[in-house]
Design goal:
Blueprint (H helix, E strand, L loop, with lengths): L2 E5 L13 E4 H4 L4 H12 L7 E6 L5 H14 L4 E9 L2 H10 L4 E5 L11 E7 L8 H11 L4 E5 L10 E5 L2 E6 L3 H10 L2 H9 L5 E4 L5 H12 L7 E2 L20 H7 L8 E5 L6 E5 L2 E3 L1 H11 L12 E5 L5 H9 L2 E5 L7 H5 L5 E4 L3 E4 L7 H15 L3 H12 L1 E12 L1 H15 L6 E2 L2 E8 L2 E2 L6 E2 L4 E5 L4 E6 L7 E11 L9 H4 L1 H10 L2 H5 L6 E2 L1
Parallel strand pairs: 3-4, 3-5, 4-9, 10-11, 10-12, 15-16, 15-17
Antiparallel strand pairs: 1-7, 2-6, 5-6, 8-9, 12-13, 13-14, 17-18, 19-26, 19-27, 20-21, 21-24, 22-23, 24-25, 25-26
Bound molecules: 1-O-phosphono-alpha-D-glucopyranose and zinc ion.
1-O-phosphono-alpha-D-glucopyranose binds next to loops.
C-alpha cells in the first residue's frame, strides 16, 4: 500500500470554536481543507498511532465523503483499529460511549450539531479525547497553531471502504470495523434506567410519548430504544429517518424549529404525555409536557432534585455543574442538597475535568443540553429517558413535577435573546464597550435594580487550575436577577450576540407570568447597556428561546 505525501499550504481560518471546527460545506470542499485540519489533529494526537479511533458523524451532507478521506489518513498515520458506524453514522453521545467502552485513544465526530445541513449548509469536525469528551482548549489551540504551519499531509492510496453494512476490513496494519451505531449505546441506557418500569406504562399506552428526531441522527436510536425495547407505539417517533439535509429543516430542538412536535403537544388533553426532540448529532434535547414547556435550566434543576429516585442515581449526586449562562435554578437545589455547584464557561469541554475527578454527577447548559457521568458529552436521549423514568416513578405529569419544583425552590424566569448576523467588528466593539462599562457598574441602580456583581467571567478549572478568560459579561442584581452577554462561538457567518436574561421569583402566586413580560425590566436594561440600537441599529432580537 502506498502512502502519499501531498503538498499543501495553510488555511488561516482553521481555529476551532465552542465545539470543533465549523464551516460551510463549500469551505470544507475546498481542495486540501479537510485534509489539512485532519493532519493537524494527527500531528497533535500522536497517541492515535497504534491505537483505536472511533469515527462517525450525524449523517449530514458531506459526511460519508469526509469519512472516506479520514479513513485513508488514519491508515496512513498507523491507527491500528478504526470503528466506524454503519453508513458513517454515530451520534455524538454514542461516540463518547464507544471511546470509553473500548478504551480508544480518541474519536473524530463529523457534525455541525444543530446548524442546518445540505450542500449550502454547514459541516463540522471535532476531536474527542480518550476520556470520551471534547478535546480541551489546550489541544484545540495546538491543532490550530499546527494548522497554520502545515505544508503536507499523508494519505493512504486505498479504495473507498464499503460503509453500508457491518463488517471488517484489514488494510495494511489497520483493522477497519463497520459497526452497528445503536446497540452499545442502547445497552448503556438499559443499564442506567429502569426499563421494566417504563415499559410497563409505554407498552400498554398508559403513557404516550412523541419524539421528534428532526430527520437527524437520533431516529435509529429512538426507534431501537423507545419502540423496540420500551414498547412505545408506532406513532411515537416523528421525522425518524436521517437525511443529508435534515429534510430542509433546522435540526435545533427548540420551540421554533421543532414545530411539528410543538403542534402535537399543544392539542390539549389528547396530546402525548411527554414530547421531546433532539438535534443534528443527538446531544441536545427539548422537553415538553401536555401544552407545557420546561426550559433546559429548570430541567437540570429538577433532575438534580429528583435523581435519587432513579435506580441509576440512587446513591445521590457528588455535585453538579452548569455553564455560566444557564439559570441559577440548579444552584438552589444544590444548596439544599448540600452539594457543590460549579459554574463553568460555555461548552461541554469544561465539564470533562469535573466529571473525571468525580466532583459532579450531573451537568447542563441552557442551550438544551443535559448529561451525566455516564459519558463525557451532553446526551439528548439520555435526558428524555431520565424524564420518562422520573414520570413513571413519580406518577405525575411533566407540568405537575415542574410546578411542584417551583413551589419548593422558587421559579427562575429565563430567556435567551440572540442577535444574529452582526458584523464581527461591530460585535467585538460592543463587547469591548460592555467590558469597560461593567468595571464601574457595581452599586449602580438600573431600572430600580441595584447591581451587586458585574464582571467579565473568568474560570479557573479546579482540577488542572487552567485559566479561561473573557467568557461572558455578567451582571447580577441584588434581587437575584441577572444578565449575561457573550458572543457565540459556533456560528459560521458574522457574529451572534447572545443575551441571557433571568429573574428569580419565590412567591408561588407569581409563577404564572408570561416569561418575556416577567423579564421586561432586564430586557430593557440589557438593550440599554449594550447600546444595541446605537451600535447595531437593533433593539429586537432575531431569536428568542
Ligand atoms: C452553543 C451553545 C453552547 C453549546 C454549544 C455546542 O455555543 O450556546 O451552550 O455548548 O453551542 O452545542 P455558542 O454558539 O453559544 O458558542
Ligand atoms: Zn449537538
Amino acid at each position: 500500500m502506498n502512502i502519499q505525501k501531498i503538498s499543501s499550504t495553510p488555511f488561516s481560518d482553521q481555529k476551532p470554536g465552542t465545539s470543533g471546527l465549523r464551516k460551510k460545506v463549500t469551505v470544507f470542499q475546498t481542495a486540501h481543507y479537510l485534509e489539512n485540519f485532519v493532519q493537524a489533529i494527527f500531528n497533535v494526537a500522536t497517541e492515535l498511532k497504534g491505537n483505536m479511533l472511533i469515527l462517525g458523524g450525524d449523517g449530514r451532507y458531506y459526511n460519508t465523503s469526509a469519512i472516506q478521506t479520514i479513513l485513508k489518513m488514519a491508515v496512513a498515520h498507523g491507527v491500528s483499529h478504526i470503528k466506524v458506524g454503519t453508513n458513517g453514522l454515530l451520534s455524538t453521545p454514542a461516540v463518547s460511549h464507544l471511546i470509553r467502552k473500548n478504551s480508544a485513544a480518541g474519536g473524530i465526530i463529523l457534525t455541525a450539531s444543530h446548524n442546518p445541513g445540505g450542500p449550502a449548509g454547514d459541516f463540522g469536525i471535532k476531536f474527542n479525547s480518550a476520556n470520551g469528551g471534547p478535546a480541551e482548549t489546550k489541544f484545540t489551540d495546538q491543532v490550530y497553531t499546527g494548522s497554520q504551519h502545515i505544508n503536507q499531509y499523508s494519505i493512504a492510496e486505498i479504495d473507498d471502504v464499503a460503509l453500508n453494512e457491518s463488517g471488517t476490513f484489514q488494510v495494511g496494519d489497520t483493522l477497519i470495523e463497520i459497526i452497528d451505531p445503536v446497540c452499545d449505546y442502547a445497552d448503556l441506557m438499559e443499564e442506567i434506567f429502569d426499563f421494566d418500569k417504563m415499559k410497563a406504562l409505554l407498552d400498554g399506552a398508559t403513557l404516550n410519548i412523541c419524539f421528534d428526531a428532526m430527520h437527524a441522527i437520533t431516529g435509529p436510536y429512538a426507534t431501537e430504544i423507545f419502540q423496540r425495547r420500551l414498547g412505545a407505539s408506532n406513532d411515537s417517533i416523528i421525522n425518524a429517518t436521517p437525511l443529508e439535509d435534515f429534510g430542509g429543516g433546522h435540526p435545533d430542538p427548540n420551540l421554533i424549529y421543532a414545530k411539528e412536535l410543538v403542534e402535537r403537544l399543544y392539542r390539549g388533553e389528547e396530546s402525548p404525555d411527554l414530547g421531546a426532540a433532539s438535534d443534528g448529532d443527538g446531544d441536545r434535547y427539548m422537553l415538553l409536557g401536555k401544552s407545557f414547556f420546561v426550559n433546559p435550566s429548570d430541567c437540570l434543576a429538577i433532575m438534580t432534585a429528583n435523581a435519587h429516585l432513579l435506580s441509576g442515581y440512587k446513591q445521590g449526586l457528588s455535585g453538579v455543574a452548569r455553564s455560566l449562562p444557564t439559570s441559577r435554578a440548579v444552584d438552589k437545589v444544590a444548596a439544599k442538597l448540600k452539594i457543590e455547584c460549579y459554574e463553568t464557561p460555555t461548552g461541554w469541554k469544561y465539564f470533562g475535568n469535573l466529571l473525571d475527578d468525580q466532583r459532579i454527577t450531573l451537568c447542563g447548559e441552557e442551550s438544551f443540553g443535559g448529561g451525566s457521568d455516564h459519558i463525557r458529552e451532553k446526551d439528548g436521549i439520555w435526558a428524555v429517558l431520565f424524564w420518562l423514568n422520573l414520570i413513571t416513578v413519580k406518577q405525575q405529569s411533566v407540568e405537575a413535577i415542574t410546578r411542584a419544583h417551583w413551589a419548593e425552590f422558587g421559579r427562575h424566569y429565563y430567556s435567551r435573546h440572540d442577535y444574529e448576523g452582526l458584523e464581527s467588528g461591530t460585535a467585538e466593539q460592543l463587547m469591548k464597550g460592555l467590558r469597560e462599562r461593567v468595571k464601574r457598574l457595581k452599586g449602580e441602580t438600573l431600572n430600580g435594580h441595584t447591581v451587586s456583581v458585574s464582571d467579565d467571567f473568568s474560570y479557573i478549572d479546579p482540577v488542572d487550575h487552567s485559566v479561561t478568560n473573557h467568557q461572558g459579561i455578567r451582571i447580577i442584581f441584588d434581587d437575584e436577577s441577572r444578565i449575561v452577554f457573550r458572543l457565540s462561538g459556533t456560528g459560521t457567518e458574522g457574529a451572534t450576540l447572545r443575551v441571557y436574561l433571568e429573574r428569580y421569583e419565590a412567591n408561588p402566586d407569581l409563577h404564572d407570568l408570561e416569561t418575556q413580560a416577567a423579564l421586561a425590566d432586564m430586557i430593557a436594561i440589557a438593550v440599554d447597556l449594550a447600546e444595541l440600537k446605537a451600535r447595531c441599529g437593533r433593539d429586537q432580537p432575531d431569536i428568542i428561546t
